[in-house]
Structure formats: C-alpha cells, structure tokens
User: Fold these one by one.
Assistant:
Number 1:
Amino acid sequence: MKNKYFLLTISCLLSLSSFSQWQLVDSISNGSFQCLHFVNSDTGFAYNDWATLRRTTDGGNSWDTVSIAFDSYMYDIDFANNNVGYAVGGAWFPFNKYYANSIMKTTDGGLNWDSVYGNSSGGVFYDVEVVSPNEFYAVGDYMMVHSTDGGATLDTFSISTPLESFSKIEFVSPQHGYLLGRTYVQTSTYLNRLYETTDGGSTWQVVHSDTLGYQGFTDFVIDASGNGILFGEKGQVRSNQGSGWNIVPLADSSLIFTMAEMADGRIYAIGDDGGIKKLFETSDFGNTWSSQLIPVDSNNYVVDMSFPNGGVGYFITNRHVYKNSALISIIEEKGLLQLEVFPNPTVNTVSVSLPVNEDVSVQLTNISGSRVKEMTFTDVNTFEVNLEIEPAGFYLLNVSAGGQNTVVKLIKK
C-alpha cells in the first residue's frame, strides 16, 4: 500500500533538518534523569535518581559530577545569577540524606551545595522560583515557603485549603507572580486554580479555575503584560494581557502539551499527538504553532527541558541529554511537497515518487538523531533508498526538492 504525504503551507510542519540538529551530549548508564536547568547557553545541570548531579560549563561538550549531600528526588533548579542557585525536591519516606521537603543552595556556580531546609515529615517541593540571590519561593505538596535571606529563615504561606498541592510558581517581576495549584475533589476530579499576586506574595487571588481530570493543567507560561497560556487536558487556555482566560482550541484536539518554557518571546512546549513526541514553538502566544520531531521513542521519554535563550535548547530523557543550538533557524514554514513512499514498513528498500522531475537531496536519520546516509539525485521523479543493512527500527527520511522539503517516518522491519 502506498503512503501519500501532503504538506501544505501551514505553521505546524516538520523538517528533518530540525530533527538532526538535536545532538546527544551526555548519557548515563545507571538511574534516570529527573531535572535539568541551564543558567546560560553553556552552563547547566542535570540530576539523576542515583543522587548524581552532572554539570557542564561548555555547552555539553564535557560533563563532570558535582558532590551534593542529597539522596532524594530533585524536581527543579533555578539560579539568580552565575553563582547563586537553589534546587528543590524531597521524599515521602525520608531517611538519612533522603530528605523530605528539601531545599539546596550553591553560592559558587554549582560546585558545592548545602542544605538550607529539610525535614523528616515526608513531602516534596516541585518548583523553585529565584527572585534574587537572597529571595526565593518553593512550592510543593500542601505547602509554599518564601525566604528573603537566602534560606536562613523561611516564611510559610496558607493560600486556600490545607490540602492544595502547588506545581509551579513564576514571577514576572519582584512583586508580580503566578502560582498553579490543584485540590482533590473526588475520584479522578481535581479543582485546578491559577493564582496571581501583585504585592510580592503577601496576598494571592484566583484568576482562573476549572474542575478537571487527573492530568488537569500541566504547565503555564506568562509574561509581564499578562499574556499567558495554561496547558493541559483542555489544550490551551489563553489570557490576553490579563483580560480573562479563555479556551482556544488546538487544530489537533488529541494534542496535549506536557511542559512548556518561554525564552526571548518564544514559547517552547513538548507535545504528544498520538504517541509521537514533538517540540512545538510559537512566537505569537499560541495563535500558530510550528513543530519538529525530536529523537525520542516510547522507551526514551522527555523528562525535562531548558531553554536559556530563544536560540539554544536542551532536554533530557530518562538517560540522555540532547542539545539544539539552532532553534530559530530550523523552525520555519515549508511549501507544498507531495510524495509517495512505499512500501512502509519495509524490509530493505523504499521507493519515493514526486509529481515532477526535480533535483533531489535526501538525508536518512535514525531515532537518536545520527545521520545514517545522504544522497543526491539529478532530474528525477522516482528514486530508491536502501535500508537493507540498517538495523530494524524507526528512521526519518528528509526529502528536499525545489526549495521545499518534508519528512517521512520510515519503519524498517
């Protein structure tokens, strides 16, 4: 059976050039990565559940292991500047260095970390927002804490019910911030609320709420003008300069964004539209989205991501760290390109047909982002790609012709 691929001039298109730009820069053989944060394009940290904190200062070219007196889960890292940073996590069943509700701090760029808070009652912090070297907020299950003296003392906040969990806090200025929480209502039903403060966290008001299922709202991004997006099981709920939050349907109703970050006016989000993970990007707060494939599969899922600026991005899977240093240049609209590719799946060879003769450039990339082969053809409308010696698995075939290109996902049996 022939598979026909039609790419129209819309913003949600794929190119293999984008896929191949994601380069594997670090791997671990034990444990699983849990969180990732880059202070700038070159300096970043990745923590795994074997209590190992990996650090790079050259954009992922080399990594070392940082000593940290901490054995718990770590969910978030944030820095005030190149030297001062905080990390949060915890454990529900603490023992020894397996701290609950843990906050760690560094003052030397991440070479050394000290505990500034931890207890034995059981619990975790999911997110930390660093406002300045001495001021930060940490939120988690049933609690939020705030410090203005670098963690020497902590204030606790009671916002609503004592059983509300908070998953993210973000400040757009020292006085203006947002907080995402949810409360159990009944089986598979949760009250999700987005809060806003304009007085540095002294008071919080609900700006949007909705009763949703288990997944609920997964993340949000917002700027100083009040333009924001809530992501989750309803697709995207958008605010226009704080004038109210309204559901804006996605073109693909099956698409769910699981995490998002904003950098230099662009929003990047990881989405799943039926089993294939993609990186989505928008520069107009969700009016249009472009997408690109990323080198993951069902056994190698995205855990966290970090975009220190609009052109450089990183993400971690359970055991790998990937980098893309050409984000802006590789997310772009493409024109109409019609292909016929068959057979797919294949045992050895696939044939590709175009409607007219063209000079064609072809790249084949495996699921890890490594280029397998490159080919060029002159004035053809049919050509073949031989996968006979390649291992079984998924491949991406990029075909460029006439200034246009498209990507086909191939399965080698």
Number 2:
Amino acid sequence: MHTSGRAATPRVPLSSPRPVVVHTTQQAILSAAEALDGSGRHFQRDQWQRDSADANAGWGATCVLEGGRLLEKAAANTTVVRGTLSAARAQ
C-alpha cells in the first residue's frame, strides 16, 4: 500500500492479471470508505460468478454500505467478464 495524503492506494504490479488489479483496488476503496465513515459499519458484500461453461463467463462483487455516520449509502461494485471482443464492438 502507498499512503500519500489520507487514502492508501494499493501497490499492484502492472504485470498482475487485470482481475487481481480490479479486486485489490475495490478492497482498498472499501477499506478507505469504511475508515472515512467512522461509524464502525462495514460494506455488505455479495460476490457472484457466472457459469464457467459460458464463453463470456465472469465474476464480480456488489458491495453496499448503508446508514453510516458520513456515508448515508455508498457502493463500490466490480464486474470482470471474459470473452472475445468483436470488431464491431471495438469501434
């Protein structure tokens, strides 16, 4: 972790797989928001995964904090999807 100013940012090597970067960054955001809120409340985490037989399978996490001291309602959600990007979608 790098601590510059108030928030800590994750130090993830650029060579890391993108899903690792996404997950690590989300966890850092959640931790920083909980600390900033100061109420002792934590994000409710709902992790999900698509069927691995699906060509566009993926995973994600929906995280919500409600009723905090500073944060009335906050969310930090992620989705990682694999698949082939068609030429038409790339434009």
